Amino acid sequence: MEISEIISSLTNSAASQTEQRLADDFDTFLTLLTTQLQQQDPLDPLDSNQFTEQLVSFTHVEQSIQTNKNLENLLALFLMQSTTTAVGYLGKEVSAEGNTAVLKDGEATWFYELGALADEATLTVKDSAGATVFEADAANLPGLHSFTWDGNDKFGTPLPDGVYTISVSAETSGGNEVAVTTFTRGTVEAVETQGGLSLLSVGGVLIPVTDVLAVSEPEPASENP
């Protein structure tokens, strides 16, 4: 969403529409009140307390609507600031916790970190439907590791481009589970806003700005001799 779209959406906000309905209702109320006053019996006038109570009610509703409008304005300003901040990530390399990567041109890369030395470690790749398509031994040393998948399933058959997920399970020699964290890393290619959240597009995967753990300048491409 563009910043201009956020601003223009304020004119059609729920509070603005409610305020317009209140104004229409208030005009109708004044018209009815004027008609009643013109046609009242001078010997038995209408109770002015009822009119006063209705006027007070309209005032309270109007104040509530104005409060909602102010909150909507603050939210819009927050969204604009968040979007402006997210734009600063364009072209930067970011790392975020996550297990999703996009297979493209026969390559998808994940990163994972083992919290301790593992006796056995296995990584599993699943497709968007949750079906296991590939398994292999994972690195068992503590620390950060990368895994690049060529897109072939366990039978060596190339799979179509798309979104895939990875999971890594590891155990010590004593059978205790080793803590494993998976990461997504790549260059930010675009910025999107969905549901009030600023999202970074990294290799086709959308990452909330709040999930970013590290930011760095991408390594310059090596020149051919």
Provide an overview of this structure.
The chain has 225 residues and is α+β, with helices and mostly antiparallel strands. Helices cover 32% and strands 34% of the residues. The strands form two sheets. Strands 1, 3, 6, 8, 9, 10 and 11 form a seven-stranded antiparallel beta sheet that branches. The longest helix is centred in the first third of the chain and has 40 residues, at 48-87. Residues 1-8 have low confidence and may be disordered.
Label the CATH architecture of the largest domain.
Sandwich
Q: Quick check: average pLDDT?
A: 76
Query: What is the top-level CATH class of the largest domain?
Result: Mainly Beta
Class derived from helix and strand content: alpha+beta
Features:
225 residues; single chain; Immunoglobulin-like; four-stranded antiparallel sheet; 2 domains; alpha+beta; seven-stranded antiparallel sheet
